[in-house]
Amino acid sequence: MMRESVLAIWNYCERALDTLFGGALNPLRHLGALAFLFFWLLALSGVYLYAVLDTSVEGAYRSIEDLSRNQWWFGGLLRSLHRYAADAFVLVTGLHLVREWLLGHFRGFRRYSWLTGVPLLVFAYICGVGGFWLKWDQVGQFSAIATAEQLDWLPIFNSPFTRNFLSNEAVSDRLFSLFVFVHIGVSLLLLFLAWFHVQRISRAEMLPSRPLAIGASATLLLLALLVPVMSQGPADLSVAQGTIAIDWLLLFIHPLMYATSPGWVWALSAGALLLLFALPFATRSRRPLVARVDADNCSGCRQCFDDCPYAAITMLPHPDGKPGKEIALVHDDLCASCGICTGACPPSTPFRSAEPLTTGIDMPQMPIGALRERLEARLAALQSERRIVVFGCDCGARVSAMESSDVAAFSLLCTGMLPPSFIEYALRCGATGVVVTGCRESGCEFRLGNRWTDERLRGVRKPRLRSRVPRERLRVVWADRGDEDSLQAALCALRELPAPLVAAPIRRRRRGM
Long-range contacts made by residues 201-205, C-beta under 8 angstroms, separation at least 24? Predict the structure, then answer.
């Protein structure tokens, strides 16, 4: 119940930002890409900061303070940008995790991405905390001692780690080198794990669109200019610390430990991690049928291989033994059951004379031949001068609500499953117009369905919608659940078009278009 309530709030926020910026610039729809952007900002600014940092106990604070005060226009600006990018990175990474949880993106074919993504938040937090130690001011001293006290609770050290902070003389350059290693080493490990995280995602969004990237970077830069980050006095273990201002996003765990106990914090952290790792295995649901390849119709064109959003298809030598000919192989554990591969397959055209229509790769629960039969039957049954066909998806706006005496609606697994030739076929069968709909822009449940559909309809991606198809009889509306009004508006516009005089005879081709 709580999850549904939070999801409703999240959807409201996403739609509000869609209205303001559009899907392509909505930060809530590109959290993973923004995380990569902030990581690279951290890396670029961190390289310069490390080059000028005096990595010694005596010189660390002095070098950072000199940078912030005497070179505020560049070095100080980069320091502030580095700090704010760290906050932004942890924030969007956490929000990305929450969004995937709310949408249920941790089961089945997404299990690998979830299990490799959860540790990223842990390493991001460790890296962020370690960064405070390097400047060795009062905040760095507080964080280092609190971390040592928390580590000492674990029975893994021969001697208490806190002994390194008994006096100023106890903090050696060797210990400071450990701080540097933690901060930089964990950053490299974070990058390595991020590479694993996106391995099973085709065309992973490694950076947001240029306008969004510029806007996010400019926001951090403006914040760095208006509210520069400054140190809070040098660390001094001989003086009891008073009130200090901390970064609550990155250092919240220290006050939490002092308010409770180290054991309680370890138990809470371990419990949260175990819960996150257990989520993909805690709920069982029926595995949907995956794509199946028909060797007699697969020509090895590689279009399904290129269009699969989750790298679930590989190409192998064709069993007929012809040199250079290939056949698609679907990996069941990676297949999302979205049907995008069916929409990419050239033999999926309804103009073929095959009875029944069999394509190179198809979805058993919704075969392309059955879609052709349903389309023909529904158009013949409509009792209206103007007949409109709506192709939608199960994850977007409810196209079944559009059904009426002059509308035939078909809900697919994903809009990307629709071969563009079905639009021409519907018009040739006597439809006045066709509406193609799916999830909102940048919100496709299967990542690439909207993008491939749009490119196919514009004729820039195979299989293409042929140029002779009258575009005034086609409407494309990207809409989520609750956006059915936008579909109604498209239907009203098509109803204003003149009805076709007579349905043209269908001449089916024996080979794919």
Answer: 201/113, 201/309, 201/310, 201/311, 201/447, 202/308, 202/309, 202/310, 202/311, 202/448, 203/309, 203/448, 204/32, 205/30, 205/32, 205/33
CA-to-CA dists, residue 489 to 390, 415, 485, angstroms = 13, 19, 6
* Closest to 398 in 3D by CA, of 340, 484, 461: 484
Q: Which residues have CB under 8 Å from 412's CB, separation 6+?
A: 339, 366, 371, 391, 392, 393, 394, 418
Mean pLDDT value across residues 300-323: 93
**Of residues 390, 395, 372, the one with CA closest to residue 449:** 395
Q: Reduced to 3 states, what is the DSSP secondary structure of residue 309?
A: coil
User: Does residue 313 surpass a pLDDT of 60?
Assistant: yes
Residue 143 has pLDDT above 60, yes or no: yes
Q: Give the span between the Cα atoms of 128 and 249, in whole angstroms.
A: 10
Continuous H helices in 1-76:
2-21, 31-52, 57-70
Helix, strand, coil content of the chain in percent (nearest 5) = 55, 10, 35
Q: What predicted TM-score, i.e. pTM, was given to this entire model?
A: 0.92
Give the max Cα distance, the chain. 94
CB within 8 Å of 378: residues ≥ 6 apart:
389, 408, 410
CB-based contact 462:470 (threshold 8 Å): no
CA 190 to centroid of chain Cα atoms: 18
- HSE-CB of 91 using CA atoms within 13 angstroms: 14
What is the reported pLDDT for 513? 38
Domain extent listing, the chain: 2-282, 292-498
| 431 CB-near residues (< 8 Å, 6+ apart) | 379, 387, 388, 389, 473, 500
Q: What is the mean pLDDT of residues 99-116?
A: 93
Report strand pairing: 326-330 vs 313-317. antiparallel
2-282: CATH topology is Cytochrome Bc1 Complex; Chain C (1.20.810)
**What's 336's DSSP letter?**
-
Helix (H, G, I), strand (E, B) or coil at 388: strand
Average pLDDT over residues 467-485: 93
Beta-bridged to residue 437, according to DSSP, are: 477
User: For residue 144, with 0-12 CB atoms within 10 Å meaning exposed, 13-18 middle and 19 or more buried, which class applies?
Assistant: buried
CA angle centred on 399, ends 395 and 402, rounded to 5°: 160
Q: Please give the C-alpha separations between residue 375 and each of 283, 367, 382, 431, 506, in angstroms, as whole numbers.
A: 37, 13, 11, 10, 13
Of 132, 122, 8, nearest to 82 by C-alpha is 132
What's the CA gap between 334 and 312, in Å, rounded? 5
Q: Which of 361, 356, 334, 329 is nearest to 346 (CA)?
A: 361
